Amino acid sequence: MNPSRRLVLHGACALLLAAALPSLPAFAANDVAGVKFDDTATVHGQPLKLNGAGLRTKVIFKVYALGLYLPEKKTSVADILAVQGPRRIQIVSLRDLTSQDFGDAFMKGLNANTDAAERTRLLPQTKTFGEMFAAIPGLKKGDVLLVDWIPGTGTVCTLNGRKIGETVPDVAFYNAILRIWIGNDPADTDLKPKLLGG
């Protein structure tokens, strides 16, 4: 190959690489174990931004990918819990989970991040939410569970686009759910900073 042709080819490769590089971080941030989280979502007519996404693992097993959507990006737990508008937790199962397994993990995370007084106050809503787990056989690999906070309505859950369970009205309960992953004793210490935009 003559030198001028080699120079042209090297230049073309460099341009292609330079063009590709800016898109790599965005793709990496939104791709979790093969699950692609959209940059935006719409809840109750309001556009939300992907605040962060990450992987929940247990021992060596990939359990689910989780994304957190907010009206504006936030990097602190206090700011996320104080958000006034709609919010969304998107969970994509990476393995089959029984409703008991998922329900037990939910209760463990809830109990680890609430004190006794708050658990007592939220007990009726926790029971209502828990009935959702009893109403479904579990999550199959690839299932998508959305847990949305809609101001004036409450916590609404959908599984693969179908509403499941009853609506839970108290924002304190939704914040208790969020603290399962971003609280002081998160379900996965590697997942928490990713949800905070890290």
TrEMBL record:
Q: Which residues form the Chalcone isomerase domain?
A: 29-197
The region annotated as signal peptide is 1-28
Q: Which organism is it from?
A: Pseudoduganella umbonata
Name-wise, this protein is Lipoprotein transmembrane
Which keywords describe this protein according to UniProt?
A: Lipoprotein, Membrane, Signal, Transmembrane
Q: Which PROSITE patterns does the record cross-reference, listed alphabetically?
A: TAT
Lineage top rank: taxon = Bacteria
Q: Which residues cross the membrane?
A: none
Q: Is Protease a UniProt keyword of this protein? A: no
